[in-house]
Amino acid sequence: MKLVLLGINHKTAPVEVRERLAIPASRLADATRTLLHHPGVREGMILSTCNRVELLTSQDGGDESQPANLLAFLHQYFALPPATVEPHLYEYREREAVRHLFRVASSLDSMVVGEPQILGQVKSAYTVAREVGAVQTELEGLLQRTFAVAKKVRHETQIGASSVSIASVAVELARKIFGSLDGKTVLLVGAGKMSELAARHLMEQGAAAVMVANRTHERAVHLAAQFAGTPVPFDQLYAQAAAADIVITSTGSSEPIFRREHGRQFLQARKNRPMFFIDIAVPRDVDPEMNRLEGIFVYDIDDLQSVAASNMAERSREAQAAEKIVSREVDRFQQRQQSLDAVGTVVALQNSAEEMRAAEMLRIRSRLAGLTDEQAAAVDALTRGLMKKFLHAPLSAVKQAAQEGDAETLEALRRSFRIDKDQEPGE
């Protein structure tokens, strides 16, 4: 298997380049078919997400021709000039391609290390490629092993256990306070992008209703509509805030909007049911004194960032453990591939030797016509024995090279005996 992976990602290319190569789900099957029919490509898969576009291929032909073929595919399919793409590309081959694929699926190469979405995206790309016939024997084994490695990383490390974004940290803290977010009501005060994102995370985790209050009421109406929520006139904020279990506030006020006396009013109206404030504003919208009230929980932007940073540090430690798992699995995969290569080479070498022996026996058959059956059998056994002894040393070398993962020696032995990999059994 000649494995080549070519791609760009969030580390190598700005979004304006990535978006020009992005392939929507509706076009992924067509793009994969086109890749499969590109000269030199035997099997292929395309992974396209907001952060990366990668071509994974098993290829025919000489090593030097392969990068140009994949680069040509990018230029032709996307109609982009070379100067737009080439500075941002990375290429991996054989072992390093395997390592990269394992790391991607295990979320070690993601913008947020440990995020769970990437494995599902790789599986979706695999499903599409398999449906169009682009993934068969060679990439099938590699991708199945990739999924197993990603599962192993998730099972044996805590790489994805802690939240690392402000919005996801807010959800994590809210869940700790309430136990479950099912049926909870969220109030957005101010219409900032980060508070909107936090609200979306809360809704995804079960929050039932959203209210929006903003000094510009039209903006409140517009944002509330996105959540099928309720706009709240700003002058009714204090009257209606007690209905909210979670308040996310992000205004441009120079003074706190919520003070300790407001907290007392809310708790009284809520009959002391807890209330959670996520204060993303700078300057702060919530007076820190509110945190002294039993049943009121206030987290400001520094609190959230501190939790996120702590979680990121924990993920970094877990990522180190995950990298060790990936390295071990790359070694195991390569050893298995070398063993499979060795089996094919051994069989091919034995078949080649037997063909030569049989041809020679046929060539001199007329000269052996006077031999008895017993004598003919003895000659046949003699030639078989000689071939077996002759093959002993090279076959031992093939097996040893496979055990040691010595691909160069294995390839040199193939060339010495003029064995083409395409002629090996199973190819």
Q: Could you characterize what this model shows?
A:
Helix 5 (94-105) packs across helix 7, helix 6 (117-131) packs antiparallel against helix 7 (137-156) and helix 14 packs antiparallel against helix 15. It is elongated and about 120 Å long. It contains 15 helices and ten strands. Helix content is 55%, strand content 13%. The relative contact order is 0.08.
SSE layout and pairings?
Elements: E1 2-9, H1 15-21, H2 25-36, E2 41-48, E3 52-59, H3 66-78, H4 82-85, E4 90-93, H5 94-105, H6 117-131, H7 137-156, H8 166-178, E5 185-189, H9 193-204, E6 209-213, H10 217-226, E7 230-232, H11 237-240, E8 246-249, H12 260-269, E9 275-279, E10 296-300, H13 301-363, H14 373-403, H15 407-416
Parallel strand pairs: 5-6, 5-8, 6-7, 8-9, 9-10
Antiparallel strand pairs: 1-3, 1-4, 2-3
Helix pairs in contact: 2-6, 5-7, 5-13, 6-7, 7-13, 8-9, 13-14, 14-15
